[in-house]
Amino acid sequence: MAVVVGIVSQKGGVGKSTIARLLAREYANAGWQVKIADLDIAQGTSFNWQARRLRNDVKPVVPVERFGTVEQALRVADHYDLLILDGPPHSTAGTLRIAQASDLVLLPSGLALDDLEPSVLLAQELTQKGIPAGKLAFAFCRIGDSDAELTEAREYVNQAGFRALQEAMPERVAFRRAFDQGRSATETPFTSLNDRADAIAQSIINLVKGAHKDGENRPSTQAQHEGYSSEHPGAKVAQPRPARAR
After folding, report:
1. Correct CATH for 3-223 of 3.10.25.10, 3.90.226.10, 3.40.50.300, 2.30.42.10
2. What is the pTM of this model?
3. CA pair distance 223, 176, nearest whole angstrom
4. pLDDT in tens, 139-162
5. Quick one: CA dihedral 241, 195, 153, 16, positive or negative?
6. Among positive and negative, which fits the CA dihedral 43, 47, 51, 56?
C-alpha cells in the first residue's frame, strides 16, 4: 500500500500545488514510484505543470493524473510507493476524506491572518470530525523576509494546538520561473533557493517517516535507493543527498 500524503487548504493561492510537486519530485528522484492525484478538476494546476515538464523533457518524470473523487484516486494507490492527494483550492466534503485516507496531511498557508485564520479553522474542523491533530502539519509558503512575521505565524498555529514545519518557502521570482518550465522548487538555477526548498522537503519526509508506522514492511528495494535509509523508506539520510536533475 502506498504512503498517502494529503495536501488541503481552505483557500487558493497558498502554495498547495507547490508543496505537492516539490514532494513528488524529491521522492521520484530517489527512485520511488510516485503519483500526484490532482483533485482540482477545475484548474488542474499540477496536471498542467506536468504537461510543461514533459514538453521540456525535465527528469525525473513525475506522473500526475486528474481524479474527480478521492475514492477514484485511492484505487490506483497499490500501484505506487507514494500517492499525493492534491486537494481542491477550497474545503469541500472531499477534504475530510483526503484527511481520513492520508498518513500525513499538510496545510500550506501564507503568514497573513487572511491565510492563517481560515487554515486554522479548517484544521479545527478536521480534528472535530475525528482527524488527530498530530496527523496535521502547516507549511508556510510565499513568505517575505521578516523572521518576526514567520515567528508570529508559527506561534499562532502552535497556540491553536497544531504544528508547523520549521522551514518555509520564500516568495521568489526564480521559483515562479521554474514552475513555468515544469520544474519544482528544488530545480531552479540557484543553489541557495534549491537548498531552501530541499530543507522543506526534508522536513516533510521526516514527518512521513513518523506518520507511516508500517514502513519497515515495505520492499527493501524501495528503501535502498540513493539518499534513503533502509530502516524506513521515508528516512532521508544526510549523505549522500539525492542527485538533482538539471
Report:
1. 3.40.50.300
2. 0.86
3. 32
4. 999 999 999 999 999 999 999 999
5. negative
6. positive
